[in-house]
Specification:
single chain; five-stranded mixed β-sheet
Length: 445
């Protein structure tokens, strides 16, 4: 093979160079083999990884140093990482082409069971003023949404993959209008896309546990492979805070599930609900580390001392918060969550549905929004903002700039982006070039 032929082959295909065998100069019979879902062992070559922070004379982080590496993957795990030196391999190779490799993204609060995505454009329907008004709207439109909900959920998963997301905690309606169909259709979509997405499912009583008499349905759902039992505004919707929360916790305990409640209520009723949840979880240690408050708007309406105190209590009993990082009059106390070590995750929530027309499935947008809201503009704080979108707040560099990801033994779930470092990724939200889920290439451009 002459030089011209070699250069032609190395630029063939978008998303990377796939090679197998030893050096081209020595083994002319080698062929290009694309990675498939069956490929168990390969090497990602020329992958850009963050190595350390660079500091100015004042001791402030001024830049992030990176280097090129080869990442050896086998059976979904990283088994070796070496500095890239142009080495040839006798196994399949994916050429990252110097693109930055970051931990894969996780969307921890999303509704793909009821979406307009995949249909022609429509803005948000005329909504009512209250959650109960929206419940009435849902009761009218859900039967039609359910007709193609499996296909649309699959399309939403494809969209998530294109944004670098490999994991989703999916909320699914459990209420009398849908019965268990929403759950069944979602589970079918997730099964069809099992190579593309890892997932958890929350059985969500969107119309209220008590308000819509969904207790029996939630118990049925708990026996159908869900991971979490949900709840909804126990005072303003269900009308009985303690009874509603007691039922939610009881079902979770009976079937060894976690809890993930939608709590939109403001301070007057939301704070007592949070305090009651803290006491319930304190009594039941099996729920510690498995209980989450989604939205939790009451936490954004407290005085600073109250916020510090309640966050310390949440951290003590292992109750996490899942925020969609709302914009407007309410800013959630995300810096305080981090300070008090409250487990914090976020999600994109809706994808073009009757609740909102703005969903994009882009977790990097959430990281960028967080940075913008809280004034994180320098290299260090921008790099930290990425953690809101990754597993267990995983970042390539720790607070001191030590490289802590990726490590040998880590799951091979990561995203490739055209950027120089995490800080740039958060600030610029560049296109995702490739996504790997447990060692499988599930998206590339």
């Amino acid at each position: 093979m002459n030089r011209k032929e070699f250069l032609h082959l190395t630029t063939a295909g978008a998303g990377g160079l796939f090679l197998t065998g030893t050096a081209w100069a020595e083994e002319k019979q080698n062929e290009i083999h694309p990675l498939t879902t069956e490929t168990q062992e390969f090497v990602v070559i020329n992958a850009r990884l963050e190595e350390r922070f660079l500091y100015n004379d004042l001791g402030q982080v001024k830049a992030t140093q990176t280097g090129l590496y080869d990442i050896h993957i086998q059976a979904g795990k990283i088994i070796a990482i070496h500095a890239a030196q142009g080495k040839t391999y006798a196994i399949a190779v994916f050429d990252a082409g110097g693109k930055l490799v970051l931990p894969g993204l996780r969307d921890m609060h999303i509704h793909i069971d009821k979406t307009f995505y995949g249909e022609s454009w429509q803005a948000e329907p005329l909504r009512g003023k209250t959650v109960k008004d929206m419940i009435d709207l849902e009761r009218r439109i859900l039967p039609e949404l359910l007709v193609h909900s499996t296909e649309k959920a699959e399309q939403a998963i494809d969209l998530m993959n294109s944004k670098g997301t490999y994991f989703a905690r999916c909320q699914t309606n459990i209420e009398p209008t849908s019965g268990l169909k929403s759950l069944e259709h979602l589970q079918k979509a997730l099964a069809n896309k099992k190579d593309s997405i890892q997932s958890e499912i929350v059985a969500f009583p969107q119309h209220g546990i008590l308000y819509s008499d969904s207790v029996g349905l939630l118990r049925e759902a708990a026996q159908m492979g869900v991971d979490y039992i949900g709840g909804l505004d126990p005072t303003t919707v269900d009308g009985d805070m303690k009874k509603s929360l007691d039922v939610m916790f009881q079902i979770a305990s009976d079937y060894n599930k976690g809890v993930d409640i939608h709590l939109h209520e403001g301070r007057a009723t939301g704070l007592p609900a949070i305090e009651y949840m803290i006491e319930k979880v304190k009594e039941n240690k099996t729920l510690q580390g498995k209980t989450f408050i989604s939205h939790g708007f009451a936490l954004g309406q407290l005085e600073s001392k109250e916020t510090e105190a309640i966050c310390a209590q949440l951290a003590e009993v292992g109750i996490g918060v899942i925020s969609t990082v709302p914009i407007g009059k309410l800013n959630m106390p995300i810096p305080t969550f981090y300070k008090q070590k409250v487990k914090l995750m976020t999600g994109t929530d809706s994808i073009i549905d009757h609740w909102s027309p703005f969903g994009s499935c882009d977790m990097l947008e959430k990281a960028k929004l967080t940075a913008e809201l809280y004034g994180w503009r320098d290299e260090f704080t921008l790099s930290r903002a990425l953690r809101i979108a990754t597993k267990d707040q995983c970042l390539p560099l720790d607070e001191e700039g030590k490289q802590v990801w990726p490590l040998v033994g880590d799951e091979a779930s990561f995203v490739l982006v055209e950027a120089s470092c995490s800080a740039e990724v958060v600030a610029r939200t560049p296109q995702r070039k490739a996504l790997f889920n447990r060692g499988k290439l599930i998206y590339s451009v």
